[in-house]
Design a protein that fits this description.
Blueprint lengths: L2 E8 L6 H9 L17 E7 L2 E7 L9 H13 L5 E7 L6 H10 L6 E6 L6 H14 L4 E4 L8 H11 L17 H14 L11 E10 L4 E10 L2 H8 L4 H14 L7 E10 L7 H7 L6
Parallel strand pairs: 1-3, 1-4, 4-5, 5-6, 8-9
Antiparallel strand pairs: 2-3, 7-8
Helix pairs in contact: 6-8
Length: 298
């Protein structure tokens, strides 16, 4: 009998949750960026082998904030824990535990499902940092399995899967053997564009970006795909930076996005139209927030 489990991946911002899921699934399931809180939705990655299937939910970085936009992300992380079979708690030991780590600890302390603690980024950690992280986890996550991994270098990942399958319930697989994610097409495309836009700018601008797919047309007879997307920021000055001198930056974003989107439509002719616009209040607009935190599945 095969096994099938749902696993929520949680941790504070920038601990490497998305990188770990991408590594396990051997596919670009979740976008990544040096900017904290890149992940805004509960994004599912699917891993299948002879033992069965693990369905990972990548959650937004758990942090403390009273802003409406950030509260939405915190709620998504909490909700992902409600019906999971197990939890992967990812810790970045390059930073000392603080209020956010304690908040995650308190959240996980009420769970009855197995929690596996992973000390990530071991490829850059000192022995002292590893020791401190393990001591903190042993004190605050008593009885939980503790592993050391490097998601970016694919080290210790097999051990993570072994632990997850140990506690996974028996049951039929929920997705086909070749599935890597259940994201719908529109969401995948908008996330690709958002990643390229975020990684092209600095400071606070990445958090001011959201991408809306305005048009997606697929002409099967002519085998052509046409996409129009709007990249929204909060201020005119941000728009100027995103567009760049003479349109250089938006051109770079388009070229990088085009290259990755083309992998979704490898045999089709692709046209990608990107435009930048300003909406100073999009983070407080309930209708827009519903769009930003929309359902991602097919």
């Amino acid at each position: 009998m095969t096994k099938c489990a749902t696993t929520a991946v949680i941790g504070r911002p920038s601990v490497g949750k998305s990188t770990l899921i991408n590594t396990i699934c051997e596919s670009k399931v979740s976008i990544t960026s040096p900017t904290p809180n890149t992940t805004r939705n509960a994004i599912r990655g699917i891993y299948t082998d002879s033992r069965g299937q693990i369905i990972f939910t990548d959650t937004p970085g758990y942090h403390i904030s009273e802003k409406k936009f950030n509260k939405h992300m915190i709620d998504i992380a909490r909700e992902s824990l409600e019906e999971c079979d197990s939890v992967l708690y990812i810790m970045d030991a390059t930073r000392a535990p603080g209020d956010e780590e304690n908040a995650v600890k308190d959240l996980l302390s009420t769970l009855k499902v197995p929690v596996i603690c992973c000390i990530n980024k071991t490829d850059i950690l000192t022995d002292k940092q590893k020791e401190k992280a393990r001591a903190w986890l042993e004190e605050n996550m008593s009885g939980r399995t503790i592993l050391e991994i490097s998601a970016s270098e694919d080290e210790g990942v097999d051990e993570v899967l072994i632990e997850l399958f140990k506690t996974a319930p028996e049951g039929p697989m929920l997705y086909g053997e070749d599935a890597r994610t259940d994201q719908n097409l529109e969401f995948r495309i908008s996330e690709i564009i958002r990643e390229k836009a975020m990684n092209s700018v600095r400071a606070e601008i990445p958090h001011s970006i959201f991408v809306e797919l305005a048009d997606l047309e697929y002409n099967k007879e002519e085998n052509k795909v046409w996409i129009r997307a709007f990249i929204t920021v909060e201020r005119d000055s941000q728009k100027g930076i995103l567009v760049g001198k003479g349109g250089a930056n938006i051109k770079k974003i388009r070229v990088q996005s085009f290259k990755e989107i083309k992998r979704i439509f490898p045999s089709s002719s692709l046209e990608l139209d990107l435009r930048v616009r300003v909406n100073s209040k999009w983070k407080s607009n309930d209708n827009i927030l519903l769009s930003v935190f929309r359902e991602t599945q097919e």
